[in-house]
Amino acid sequence: MTLIVGITGGIGSGKSTVSQVFKLLGTPVFEADVIAKKLIHSNSVIKTGLVNLFGEDIYTTEGWIDRKKLATKIFNDDIQLAKVNALVHPVVRKEFKEWVKQQKTEYVIHEAAILFESGFYKMMDFTILVSAPEIQRIKWVMKRDNITEKQVKERIAKQWTDEQKYKLATVEIKNNNRDLLIPQIVKIDTQLKKYGKIW
């Protein structure tokens, strides 16, 4: 039976980098956030639901979601955000279940920014929290997204803290300037392939 391992971490923590290393070690990775973005463009149930919520102009004439418009609608409105998540999450969950059936490895990775907040973690056998110092995260996201420190802090404030996530995580990978990243990942990979568990 293929084990399912969830990876999450706050914005700028490096969870995508960690997932890429697992890929290099031969493990399939389901990037939930990337899949969700694709489904918003292609899935008829999601598209109809978003149009019903926000009107026809939430999509461009070419059929692409207007990301800025959507972000404006949901960023400071938890009710609208919950409605969007209620549309998107079940479709992503279904995609993931179908994807897992096609994999032949000892374990697979499910990478998601809101693994715990969304309840997706309940589908996992184990969960990994990627943590990083907030100063490091802020600098990285400012550079990556070309936004201000204030904007990054606003995004961080919207997510659960590492302390909240840690309570639900099987193990933590520390992405800082003290602990080497690769050995932490290799250790988990070895444990899963050899023993079928993480400790």
Give a verbal description of the structure:
The protein has about 200 residues and is an alpha/beta fold. The chain folds into 2 domains: about 120 residues, 3-Layer(aba) Sandwich (Rossmann fold), CATH 3.40.50.300; about 60 residues, no CATH class. Helices cover about 55% and strands about 10% of the residues. It is built from 9 helices and 5 strands; from the N terminus they run E-H-E-H-H-H-H-E-E-H-H-H-E-H. The chain has a 5-stranded parallel sheet with strand order 2-3-1-4-5, with helices on both faces. The longest helix has 24 residues. The radius of gyration is 18 Å and the shape is globular.
CATH-derived architecture of the largest domain: 3-Layer(aba) Sandwich
Strand order of the largest sheet: 2-3-1-4-5
- In DSSP terms (H or I, runs of 4 or more residues), the helix count works out at 9
End-to-end Cα distance, whole Å, is 19 Å
CATH class of the largest domain: Alpha Beta
Give descriptors for this structure.
2 domains; single chain; alpha/beta; 9 helices; five-stranded parallel beta sheet; 199 residues; Rossmann fold
In brief, what are we looking at here?
Helix content is 53%, strand content 12%.
Describe the secondary structure blueprint for this structure.
Elements: E1 3-8, H1 15-24, E2 29-31, H2 32-42, H3 44-54, H4 67-74, H5 78-101, E3 107-111, E4 126-131, H6 134-145, H7 149-158, H8 162-166, E5 171-174, H9 181-195
Parallel strand pairs: 1-3, 1-4, 2-3, 4-5
Helix pairs in contact: 2-5, 3-5, 6-7
